[in-house]
Amino acid sequence: MKGYDPHAFEPFAVTVDLAVFTVRGGALNVLLIRRGQDPYAGAWALPGGFLLPRESAETAARRELAEETGLAEAVVAALHLEQLRTYSDPDRDPRMRVVSVAFAALVPDMPEPVAEGGGDAAQARWVPVGETGPLAFDHARILSDARSRIGAKLEYTCLATGFCPPEFTLGELQSVYETVWDTALDRPNFRRKVLATPGFVEAVPGAARLTGGRGKPAALYRAGPATALHPPLLRPTEGHAQ
Amino acid sequence: MKGYDPHAFEPFAVTVDLAVFTVRGGALNVLLIRRGQDPYAGAWALPGGFLLPRESAETAARRELAEETGLAEAVVAALHLEQLRTYSDPDRDPRMRVVSVAFAALVPDMPEPVAEGGGDAAQARWVPVGETGPLAFDHARILSDARSRIGAKLEYTCLATGFCPPEFTLGELQSVYETVWDTALDRPNFRRKVLATPGFVEAVPGAARLTGGRGKPAALYRAGPATALHPPLLRPTEGHAQ
DNA sequence: GCAAAAGTGTTTGCGATACACCCATGC
DNA sequence: GCATGGGTGTATCGCAAACACTTTTGC
């Protein structure tokens, strides 16, 4: 093994592909870009690109994310970015051998149609998952894998706060869960579970924010330092319920 | 993105690295090979190797596994092989740019010192995790990631049977959990949980096997068709307990 | 008989679910 | 006042941890 004979291996291209999720309008959306060139010119695809010579996959993913979304580097550096898996089927790209490391990222609801792709990415838009038509390459598969991974991770990690703005109400956090899982949760019980987990959320001492008009103003919370969710927050009956 | 300009990307070498685990002598062991060449000549490393031109990472991993362990192709094809993540730090290999897709595999206790590496792998042996000295490249990191992944996966999947021979007793299955988690489990409760999960194990109609001398002979079970463990089997207090 | 391991039964208590209820705001 | 959403309290039910107990073997 590991012979390092220069002829012992085939040169591969290595790319990253990103499944960038947000919650908007009561639905889980994913960021898609329209391809400007062949193959799959005109088709929608996940954002991504080649690794630069001195970049790790994580670094490349953050760079691409900043380029495609127009978010500030500092913001992108703090986002939750999770490596999903690597797709290496020899025929996944019709032109050449490309191995792609897929990532999932979570962003809060953004101003609107995102940066209009400064480079060769002609168009970028948010699309509700499930309303994406066919995608280029094996991106439908990647998206499907990313979606189920995100759903499962909400159960035992704190990453749901990644979908929320810096300060949020528990109602907003709950609607993130309800949107991603597509289930209704009991508000009092949700509240208790979240507050019972040390470091999941921290109360913002100051004021309360209106929920958009009617109703009692809700207390504001920030994401806490915890990353794992020890008593897991299980979805009702669907799947991993106990 | 995805410009396909041949100069737009750097050629990378792509390898697979395997963390192959087994339970032997009351400890979790991992398969290591001693490197025959530089870099890290003489050091111990995880088995692995380059992808062939028309191979996916999964196919390459199974091929390498068969080569290193001497297991029959049919056996290897049925093993649980799980993609962990991809390691792509630009400096992880001192010679060149190598991106490595890491896998974890579970095998039952094997005859003994495994095939003596037919190729350039000088030596192969089982080593209890924690007694591996320093490893080549970033393999200590990979091994550590693999170990925690395996531990977590035992909670909510059925893959513990992968550590057992085709027919096993519930005592053997329990000792797999106890070895990997390094905790003691209550036998009656373990029994109930395992038997209450449909498809986890199936009773072998015929005889019972002695437990190696003393004690009441135990009933034999086979791995069932289930892969996920719905009421998860949580480890006591450590970590994901509820 | 004794030790060791398999297997069964039973009690108990924690925790989550499923509610009922009160509070504060906009219209 | 009423609708809307935030927040608090509480009874019940179920599960699982803990442990006592029986069974079957080897020595």
TrEMBL record, chains A, B:
InterPro entries: Nudix_hydrolase (IPR020476), NUDIX_hydrolase-like_dom_sf (IPR015797), NUDIX_hydrolase_CS (IPR020084), NUDIX_hydrolase_dom (IPR000086), WH-like_DNA-bd_sf (IPR036388), WH_DNA-bd_sf (IPR036390), WHD_NrtR (IPR054105)
Record-linked PROSITE patterns: NUDIX (PS51462), NUDIX_BOX (PS00893)
Pfam families: NUDIX, WHD_NrtR
GO terms for MF: hydrolase activity
Record keywords, A-Z: Hydrolase
Residues covered by the Nudix hydrolase domain: 11-150
SUPFAM superfamilies membership: Nudix (SSF55811), Winged helix' DNA-binding domain (SSF46785)
Coiled coil regions, renumbered to chain: none
Highest taxon listed in the record's lineage: Bacteria
Similarity comment: family membership: Belongs to the Nudix hydrolase family.
This protein's name: NUDIX hydrolase
Taxonomic placement: Bacteria, Bacillati, Actinomycetota, Actinomycetes, Kitasatosporales
